[in-house]
Each structure stands twice: as C-alpha cells, then as structure tokens.
Amino acid sequence: MTAQSSPQPAPASTRALAPGRVNLIGEHTDYNDGFVLPFALGLGCTATVVLGGEGWVATSAQQDGEVATTTCAPSAVPGWATYVLGPIWLLADRGVDVPPMRIHVDSNVPLGAGLSSSAALVCSVVTALDEALSLGLGAEESLALSRAVENDVVGAPTGGMDQLVSLRAVEGHALFCDMRSLETSPVPFDLEAAGLAMVVIDTRAPHRHVDGEYAERRAGCEEAARVLGVPALRDVGADDLDTAMERLGEDRLQRYVRHVVTENDRVLATVDLLRGGDVAAIGPLLTASHASMRDDFAISVPEVDAAVDALLEAGALGARMTGGGFGGCVIGLLPRAGVEHAIEVVTQRFGDGGWQEPTGFLVTPGPGAHVVPD
Ligand code: ADP
Ligand code: MG
Predict the structure, then answer these.
(1) Distance CA 54, CA 82 (A)
(2) In terms of C-beta density within 10 A (0-12 exposed, 13-18 middle, 19 or more buried), how is residue 137 classed?
(3) Strands, E, within the chain: which ranges?
(4) 253: how many CB neighbours lie within 10 A of its CB?
(5) Around Cβ 247, how many Cβ atoms within 10 Å?
(6) Which band of pLDDT confidence, cut at 50, 70 and 90, is reported for residue 9?
(7) If exposure means fewest CB atoms within 10 Å of the residue's CB, which of 75, 195, 287, 304 is most exposed?
(8) How far is the CA of 163 from the centre of ligand 2 (A)?
C-alpha cells in the first residue's frame, strides 16, 4: 500500500485592480499645491499576491523573467520590479514583518504613454498587499505608501496626482483634488448623457528629455514662488497675476507662473461647469489649457500640437495634451457621432507629417483601486 500524501491546499491569493488615469485638466499644478481634475480609466493593472514560497518574487505579464529577492535593495533589481517590490520594502522598512510571497502584475494601460501605468501598478500592489496582509491601511496611508514608492524607491519626482486618482476615483465621475490638503471630491462627468465622447490619442511621440525638462519646470516654479514670497504658486490668485508678472521680471518665470495660475483657475471653472451638468461647455477650457502648456509652459511637441489641431478641425469641442508633456497622449471632447471621423483626420495628419501612426480609443470614467474576486 502506498502512503497517500494529503492534498496541499492551494495557496490563497489576493487580487486587486487599480486604474490608469487621464487628467481632464490641471497640468503641472499638482506640485504647486494647486488643483487637478483627473479621472480613472477603464484600463488598469491587476496585482495578484500569493503568500508563501521563499523570498519576495515579482513577475509581470509585460516583462520577461521573474525577479526574486530577500533584501530591500532597489539597485539590485531591474527598474520595473522596483515598482512591484517597492511597497514591500517600504513596509519592511517600517517594521512590518512581511512574509514571503509572489506578486504577479498584468496591465492593459500603455506603458510610458502618460496614462499612468506606473501608478496603476503601484496602487494595485498596495491595495492587494493591504488585503492579503490585513494591514488596515487607511486612505491616507495607502496614498502615502504609493507615493513613496514612486518618489523614494523608484526616484520619479511625480506630484502625487496619479496615485490619488488611482486609489480614490469614483465611476462616472472626475476627481477634483486639492493637492495641498489632499482632499478629493467626485464631480459628475456623464459623457453619455451629454451625447459626447472623450477620445484619447496616444501620439506615440518619443518622450524627449522628459526627466530633465520636468525637473527644470518644477525648479522654475519653486524659484518663482520664492521670488514672490509665497509658499507655493497655489497662493498666487488670478487677480494677483499682473503684480506677480512685474515682480518676476524674467520672461521664463513669468510664463511658468502664468500657466500655473491660469490653469488652477481653469480647473475651478471646469468643476463649476460639470457640477452644473454642462459637459459641452468645458471644451474651450481644455483648448485654452493646451495653448497655455504650449506657449507659456513650453512642454508640447509638434506631434501633440498636430493631434490637438486635427481634433479641433474635425469638430472637437475642446482638446489638450494630458500628462506631464513632451509627447504622450492628447484628449478630445467630441460629439459621439464625430469620433471615427476625428480619429481618421488625426491619423491622416500623422501620415502627412511622416510620424508613427497614432492610436485612438474612447474612455469613460471608471472606479478607483479595489480588491477583485480571484
Ligand atoms: P506612465 O506612468 O505614464 O505609463 P512611467 O514612466 O511613469 O510612465 O511608468 C512606466 C514604467 O512603469 C515602465 O517603464 C515600467 O517600468 C513600469 N510599469 C508600468 N506597468 C508595468 C507592468 N505592467 N509591468 C512591469 N512594469 C510596469
Ligand atoms: Mg507614471
């Protein structure tokens, strides 16, 4: 008689989904303590945590191979794995006894396109770990941990909006975020009821010098705040703009401040219009935001401007670059019936310019991070 081994119970797994995002309006205002109005995509990253095994193992459907480690050593693993293992390292650093586990991630957010695949990844892992380890992280701790992964472990100086919306978005709404208090409030954003659609054009334009340019804009804003004697550019109101221009003197800082101050104002105006149910009326604010990014903040590139212009010519009520700039995605607010034509016009324009063919897809506001049944 052969001894029968008792069947091993399948390792319990926990799965969480966190979305990428589109920023409807409010660009480069987050690190100035200002306002942003992003919404979550229906696209996201799923993180599956299986406790057990040896060490901490990370795998991704979007990367080859697995990364296994037993120590908190960001420099010893490939870049992508720092996003996955970062939350574990920070928890261990804070004295949490983190057991061995495997974490697998799988995302349908395009990587590096300005739709925040990185926050989707980090927030999905944080949400899954919170559940799997019964950490009881509140909303604030989840946010702080997710931000710290990108800022301190990966070393990306992001302003915090991406993680905030990925964690707290509400389906059918944009999320008005005050980046000083980190208070958020959902704002109804019902495209369908308005007979409208929002198209995202991924220009696939190569990001040019994006890290250096981002750091330069950020430093410029900080310098301007110092010159103006305010804690952050959030504290310069639209009414103070003329005086601020005089005090700054220098053209570069004047442009940066004008962008941030007027952009904050546009976010507030957009929120008011959406709360009043007038989705179509936000179009001109989106387009004005783009002009400000292009002319004052100088963060656009020819492919992006061409996509915005083509969308407007094809009947968009408004269009703008979304995300940090220097490439990435453009959004357009369109009558539903005009979407296909608009994408054709943009594609044609890119062909004429000799650029890579862009991709276009529709988005609607989805929910924030949540645990999903296995
Ligand atoms: P964005 O957030 O706009 O997509 P980032 O440069 O901030 O661009 O983040 C992209 C990086 O995040 C990728 O280069 C990769 O390192 C990491 N990443 C995002 N999603 C995944 C994934 N599913 N698997 C592995 N790495 C990912
Ligand atoms: Mg990112």
Answers:
(1) 18
(2) buried
(3) 13-25, 35-51, 56-60, 66-69, 101-107, 173-178, 183-188, 196-202, 318-322, 329-335, 359-363, 370-372
(4) 20
(5) 15
(6) low
(7) 75
(8) 9
Q: Ligand 2 center to residue 252 CA distance, Å?
A: 26
Q: How far is CA 328 from the centre of its chain?
A: 12
Rounded to two decimals, the pTM is: 0.93
Task: Give the residue among 284, 256, 260, 252 at the shortest CA–CA distance from 270.
Answer: 284
Residues 6+ apart with CB under 8 A from 142: 123, 126, 127, 130, 167, 369
Amino acid at 348: Q
DSSP at 16: E
Ligand 2 is an ion; residues with CB less than 5 A from it: 116, 118
CA 228/CA 147 separation, integer angstroms: 28
Which phi and psi angles does 367 have, rounded to 5°? -80, 165
- Catalytic residues, by residue number, are 162
| C-alpha to C-alpha distance for 260 and 237, rounded to whole angstroms | 10
**Token pair for residue 49?**
């945590």
Q: Mutual orientation of helices 302-313 and 283-291 as an angle, nearest 10°?
A: 150
Extract long-range pairs of 71-78: CB within 8 Å, 24+ residues apart.
Answer: 74/153, 74/154
The single-letter code of the amino acid at 167 is: L
- E strand or H helix at 118: helix 117-132
- The helix-helix angle for 161-168 and 139-148 (nearest 10°) equals 140
- CA-based nearest residue to 273, from 27, 16, 34, 37: 37
Which ligand sits closest to the CA of 207? Answer: 1
Structure-block tokens of residue 309: 């212009």
Q: What is the mean pLDDT of the chain?
A: 94
Give residue for tokens 């212009």.
309
Contact call for residues 338 and 325 (beta carbons, < 8 A): no
